[in-house]
Write a structure and sequence with these properties.
globular, mainly alpha, 0% strand, 193 residues, 9 helices
């Protein structure tokens, strides 16, 4: 039973699933965050939710990933996630997205870069789940206010699930959490917002 609950929590804390919640919370809080109309809202969903989620059906058809196990699925999810972040960031710059959208894509892109560097250059695999929850909570706290600091109460659930499934150590989870928060702080500094 515990593993079933841990798998459910891990599903709900996949980076694109959390991004779906965050984008919708931001839209409900203040739709002007995404500018007039629905264009940048849709672009945000495309780049931070749909493109990253494509890793799971693509795994079934791409040579090299089709027969690969959990580690290959993780790599493909990471690749599609970073691709979506880069694509969204570039679109936001090229087409002069509203400041909030550029901030959102910057935060996600910096997190992707920091995770990539830390996973390649350190002995720890910083947790993408921890990063993908902590960073967006920091975004919500910054945009909506301190009342959303309570969102960080989700972190023990994320830690418990990832530890229960033996996917990460405490150090890797703390490292991922720090990466997510640092990425948001860097995005805040970049926009002086």
């Amino acid at each position: 039973m515990d593993k079933t609950v841990a798998k459910f929590i891990s599903f709900l804390t996949l980076v694109p699933v959390v991004a779906l919640f965050v984008i919708n919370i931001l839209f409900q809080y203040d739709s002007s965050f995404f500018g007039e109309g629905y264009t940048w809202y849709a672009v945000s969903l495309l780049c931070l939710v749909i493109i990253p989620i494509l890793a799971y059906p693509l795994k079934r058809v791409l040579p090299g990933y089709k027969e690969g196990g959990r580690e290959e699925e993780r790599k493909l999810a990471f690749i599609t996630g970073v691709f979506g972040q880069v694509f969204g960031f570039i679109l936001s710059l090229l087409f002069n997205a509203p400041k909030g959208v550029r901030f959102l894509f910057t935060s996600y892109l910096v997190a992707g870069i920091l995770l990539t560097v830390s996973n390649l250059k350190t002995p720890y695999r910083a947790s993408g789940h921890a990063c993908g929850v902590a960073g967006p909570i920091a975004i919500l706290v910054h945009v909506i206010g301190k009342k959303l600091l309570m969102g960080f109460l989700l972190m023990p659930l994320v830690f418990w699930a990832r530890l229960k499934l033996k996917r990460h150590s405490i150090k890797e989870l703390m490292f991922g959490t720090a990466v997510g928060v640092c990425a948001t702080v860097i995005a805040i500094a970049a926009f002086r917002w």
